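Minimal example, chain plus adenosine monophosphate.
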Amino acid sequence: MGRALSLSVVQWETIRKFPHPSGVTPNMAEYERERRSFSWDGAHQWLDGLPGGAGLNIAYEAVDRHAAGAISSKPALRWLRRGGDALDITYGELSERSSRFANALESLGLGAGERVFLLSPRSPDVFVAVLGTLKRRAVLCPVFAAFGPEPVRQRMELGSARVLVTTYDLYRRKVAKIRDRLPLLEHVLLSGDLSGRDLPAGTTALDTLLDAQPSGYRIAPTHPEEMALLHFTSGTTGTPKGAVHVHEAVVAHHATGLLALDLHPDDVFWCTADPGWVTGTSYGIISPLTCGVTSVVEDGEFEAERWYGILETMGVTVWYTSPTALRMLMQAGPEPARAHDLSRLRFIASVGEPLNPEVVVWARDTLGLPVHDNWWQTETGGIMIANYACMDIRPGSMGRPLPGVEAGVLLRDEHDRVVIGPDGAAREAGPGQDGELALRPGWPSMFRGYLGDEERYRAAFDGGWYLTGDLARRDGDGYFWFLGRGDDVIKSAGHLIGPFEVESTLLEHPSVAEAAVIGKPDPVAGEVVKAYVTLARGYAPDDELRLELLGFARSRLGATVAPREIEFDQHLPHTHSGKIVRRLLKERELHHPGLGSSGPGRGAHR
Ligand code: AMP
């Protein structure tokens, strides 16, 4: 258990179930009762399925069935434009525009299973591209727009990108220079306002293409096990992993929208996650649409005053955000919160990184509502553990498993492997004991593989469980407490960063003989990326070289992934076999934090 970040499990005062003055009754009235009565087959029935029993398609459940029914003219999106005015886009309009996108893909010769990459900030076009891709039964692959050219290229190559949807600026800054290394990429569609700009060679204006398409599209029969989404995630070693998700996942997106986020038909929902990460797709796009609510869409940077303004003027009722963003609001002090009328807000949830108990209590006292933490990861496709509206909150706890999900804490041996008994079953830890957080396979949004890496996929399962790689503890009442990662992966402002990717880039610089990258604890971002660098002979460890290396990494990796800090060290710790022991560097950082300050970066999360 040596690897657990020692976040102590302090018992804060329980926050009793928090009724909202609006009197809204939670969708899940009582946790234990829901656990007993819930089944995934039952949750399947909450959706419509394609007409004529032609299968299950995420886009049909998200828009087309609503467009054909009673809420066709209800706003699906409330888009806050840069100038400050808001534009509503109805379910009917979104259905039509995404049908044009599906027709456009067909006209480009794109068939089922082929990959459409998305590199874009939040905008209605993102919804159109995601839904249109799914209607066409192609595979949607989102990539974080703050990545530098190298991580973008690597992911597009791994995913065999044929179509890319992006903006003019992002294309110029990140894609143009790597395009000749992506021979499979045939079509680049540029979204947004292109007036007054010359289209770069080899690109097409998305609006012009869509306007030329028919507005109706009949979704072909879709098997629930067809691949729908490819989400990239990082491990400790090797290249990024492409987690494969299928159309069946929509059953979990919908059920968790109702049960964990407590979405009701009249809600105005704001998910601050970036569309380049799994939360931005599962809960920024799919889940709220299947639940028929109105989503706020905006793409500005984090700024406390502006965010409170959005909550107030957009009339947000349910807000899904990140611990980093909440910590930044807390830092801004209580005044900006008090200057706004947040009385419509009735439920706040957060995800992606540990949520400090202080933040839960601060939110109750300052925003008038506690924060409901929940836990999941790219591979699980949807929320797995949560603090529900009907349940008391234990600040610092991730909550309890979703009805229909069995979570366990498994004992690990001295080599950090789960302990398997003679019967082949994994040994579970008792209440209060540390272990690896695991889930019993079988929920609908579970990933179905890592693209092209069957071995890595199989290694994620043992003793009848899916192993999450996180360390956790369960208390006597079944609440789960996050203890830390079981591996060296870094979480910075909610973004998962593989240290290997950063080390490999640093090693491309001639001055770097060896590099080790860790997450350095940070009060706002949770962790920031720090690199230890051993210099090649002939290079002096001075500030000039440090700045050069910081700039070198930033230009290739992008600001989110590049190290914030570099420390020169000619004696990095190694194992007998010569591997660098990042864990020792991390322990050093915990006990003797270096100087050097760092800001939290963007408030957006995965
Ligand atoms: P990602 O795959 O990028 O969504 O990152 C998933 C990882 O984020 C998990 O395996 C955890 O390490 C971390 N994480 C997600 N939610 C929480 C949470 N509520 N508390 C602590 N860590 C979390």
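The first strand starts at residue 75 and ends at 80. DSSP finds 18 helices and 27 strands in the chain.
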